[in-house]
Specification:
The chain is an all-beta fold and 131 residues long. The protein has no helices and eleven strands. The termini are far apart.
Length: 131
């Protein structure tokens, strides 16, 4: 299901920054853990970061390549989850997707692409890091 909308992608030089946004008008994201995933051409989609639902146990996770460079956050008033990306590298190039986790029993978010949990996805936003 394509229920989410990503934005904020674009072309940046190595070392630059982007802030991606994930939102929806269909439901309240406060009740869902949100994951960010990315897919480079010819490669499998991989988890980037996630943030737990706002109403229960809270945690964030980052892939090793994202630690220290990317930050995930929420703005509840705007029903939006952000992924701030700094010190971007060419290998960060790819299509970035957000997904909503509907597992009401889970306490932690996950970077695994579990289709039973991440049931709503966006269409993706292109991030290109190049000189």
């Amino acid at each position: 299901q394509l229920q989410l909308v990503e934005s904020g992608g674009g072309l940046v030089q190595p070392g630059g920054s982007l802030r991606l946004s994930c939102t929806t008008s269909q439901f309240d994201l406060d009740y869902n853990s949100i994951g960010w995933f990315r897919q480079a051409p010819g490669k499998e989609r991989e988890g980037v970061s996630c943030i737990s639902r706002n109403w229960s146990y809270r945690n964030t996770l980052y892939a090793e390549f994202a630690k220290g460079r990317f930050t995930i956050s929420r703005d509840n008033a705007k029903n939006t989850v952000y992924l701030e990306m700094n010190s971007l590298k060419p290998e960060d190039t790819g299509v970035y997707y957000c997904a909503a986790d509907w597992d009401e029993f889970a306490t932690d978010c996950t970077l695994e692409e579990d289709q039973a949990r991440y049931r709503d996805w966006g269409q993706g936003t292109q991030v290109t890091v190049s000189s």
